Amino acid sequence: MKNKERSGIIAGLLSGILWGADTHYNGVILMMLPFTLVDPRLAGAALLLALFHDGFSALMMTGELVRQGQLKQTFKQLTSKSSFVVMLAAVLGGPMGMRAYLYAVDAIGAGLTASISSMYPVVAAFLGMLILKEKITKPVWIGLGLAVLAVLGVSLSGDMMQSNAQLIGFLVAFLSVVGWSLESVICSIGMKEDLNPKQALWIRQCVSTLVYLGFITFESDLVFSVTAVMSQPVLWLILGVAVLGTLSYLNFYRAIDTIGPVKATALNISYAIWAIVFSILLGGAEFNPILLLSAALMIVSSVLVSQHEGA
To answer: CA 303, CA 311: separation in Å to the nearest integer?
Structure first.
């Protein structure tokens, strides 16, 4: 295995671990003020959290590009074809995928949402085959199939079945699958040309934040909503979670750029397991034996997909 491929695999695995932690803490945040308030002036909890989550991430990536002296060059590339491709991916992955994901976390819980949404590598594999003409070989399909079994195992665990699931929550969770699958494939096209992962992530987070601002302006009172969050102690927790999310995004984009969207998404899918693990370790959730089998299947699927040369 080449060093470049090894670094891509490590980045993919890290993206899953970090996103699992991000998911757990987002669930905690949505149960805190002001997200539990009922006020017509206040934006929806999922939309408001998404704004701050990606907004803080955009600020952090701006600082990183300034530190590396890449911000000026990135601005010059905003009119390039690659940048427009990444902007499209940003809308699909952020306002569509992330907003749907956080809505589902609020509606049916972090664990079940993670289980459903982590099926997106299967959709991404099909899209990669259709759009990028990638060759999806037998070991890759086996690995993706095991990944599906793993996330189904998580969804069938006792803790998940006891959640206050609603049909709309399930449907919205599947919407995040579509958004993130399209983002993975489309973003890989943008980074094949003149954008590196950090530049692509900066564009993604900035565009996503601007779209969220537009939604909140039309749907509620922007000033009231932003002030409501900034006046609460939860702001610092959101900032910390945004750091986790930024590192996860960055590793995911690096993995896409290095080993391709199919391998990257297959490794990133482990966040479904990690979200449950963090809920057990940090949230006091009860351990379920089905989780152990699901984790084993997830590891096997990741190894199959990540080590196959033809993927």
So the answer is: 12
Nearest of 102, 48, 57, 95 to residue 224 by alpha carbon: 48
3-state helix, strand and coil shares in percent for the chain, rounded to the nearest 5: 80, 0, 20
Tell me whether residue 118 is exposed, middle or buried, using C-beta atoms within 10 angstroms of its C-beta: 0 to 12, 13 to 18, 19 or more. Answer: buried
Among the listed residues 203, 255, 244, 228, the one whose alpha carbon sits nearest the alpha carbon of residue 94: 203
pLDDT per residue as tens digits for the range 51-87: 999 999 999 999 999 999 999 999 988 888 888 888 9
175 within domain boundaries: yes
The span from the CA of 289 to the CA of 227, in Å, is: 44
Q: Which residues lie below 8 Å from residue 272, measured CB to CB, with a gap of 6+?
A: 20, 114, 115, 117, 118, 150, 151, 154, 298
Residue with tokens 């290095």: 258
Q: How many domains does the chain have?
A: 1
Backbone angles phi, psi at 28, to 5 degrees: -65, -45
Q: Do 9 and 306 touch, CB atoms closer than 8 A?
A: yes
In a domain, 294, yes or no: yes
Average pLDDT, the chain: 83
Classify residue 311: in a domain, yes or no: no
Give the separation between CA 49 and CA 112, rounded to whole angstroms. Answer: 19
Residue 75 class from Cβ within 10 Å (0-12 exposed, 13-18 middle, 19+ buried)? exposed
Q: Is residue 282 part of a domain?
A: yes
**Is the pLDDT at 24 greater than 60, yes or no?**
yes
Residue 266 structural domain: 1-306
* Cα gap 194→30, rounded to integer Å: 38
